[in-house]
Amino acid sequence: MTVETRISDTRGADSSSRQEGPGGLWDSVKKAAFVIGSGILFLAAFGNSLTWHLQRFWGASGDFWQNLWTKLYLAFEGHDTALFYLGTMLIPSVAFWASNGLLLLVDITGKPSFITRYRIQVDKNNPVDPAKLRHAVKSVIFNQVFISGPMVVVCYHLMSWRGDPCGPELPTFHWALAELAIFSMLEEVMFYYSHRLFHQPGLYKHFHKQHHEWTAPIGVVSIYAHPLEHVISNTLPVVIGPVILGSHLSTTTLWYCLALVSTTISHCGYHLPFLPSPEFHDFHHLRFNQCFGVFGVLDRLHGTDTKFRQTKQYERHTLLTSFTPLMESIPDSPKKGQ
Ligand SMILES: [Zn+2]
Ligand SMILES: [Zn+2]
């Protein structure tokens, strides 16, 4: 505990001085490059033994996926464009609205209690304000249709020009895994810095304030944002990876679904068992000036999680592996509410 505190203290003092000048920012970027570089080295060193175990599992099911893809490929022969949009627009949208549909049922009705008992900000959205929700949903649909849609069309042209995103052969398991790791790192870097930029007072007022109208977020609010923010912070960090790597449609589809479902979870407002913890981004909505990234790596590096790490929310920021809500096992302190 002492070590932990000491690290956070140094980081706090360090970062407040660093955030000032442009030299400080450069220093931060160098540190980020160092961490990401180390990550790649780590993967290179231990990746083999890690993936060996996964490959054993994959070996049995690999043919199954390849056969499935071959069937789809033959069914759409000559209609690559349709196949691409099915995988990059339709399937990810279904994943988004299926998960959000379930969450919305809970948000609107305030039931069932076996879900609502996991609510992070207990007194909020119980039930959710219908007018506020309607406004958010309209904006989300606008962003999906008029921003994400056209951006995926651009991606299709870039990816087709670069290679064949709908090739007959699926990528190997190792390569798909490596791609997902690279996509995640790109997303963390691009989302963190663009998000912090949108928190600069001038930009915040005009663009990002909209997303922060929800101090207690719900799933669907994950892409409730000003269109410019939706382009730069939400969509670009996700779609850029597959374009750079010239990925196969299967990996791209999987990645878009993962990105949409994970941002839904991080906004959903319920810390449910056996799902990734949403505490980090929920805290960003509560406090505004903490926890800007996706995974938290860059926040640790830049000291933008120091206040978060002194809270109960940070203690609860783990994978819940039992059915006891963390609000019960780690209750708020009886004195002031943070
Ligand atoms: Zn958010
Ligand atoms: Zn923000």
Automatic annotation (TrEMBL):
Domain Fatty acid hydroxylase intervals: 181-304
InterPro entries for the chain: Fatty_acid_hydroxylase, Sterol_Desaturase_Related
Regions that span the bilayer: 32-54, 82-106, 140-161
Any GO molecular function: oxidoreductase activity
Chief subcellular location: membrane
Compartment annotation: Membrane
Biased composition regions of type Basic and acidic residues, renumbered to the chain: 1-12
Region (Disordered): 1-23
Annotated Pfam families: FA_hydroxylase (PF04116)
Keywords associated with the record: Membrane, Transmembrane, Transmembrane helix
Biological-process GO terms, alphabetical: lipid biosynthetic process
Entry GO CC: membrane
Superkingdom per UniProt: Eukaryota
Record's protein name: Fatty acid hydroxylase domain containing 2
Organism ancestry: Eukaryota, Metazoa, Chordata, Craniata, Vertebrata
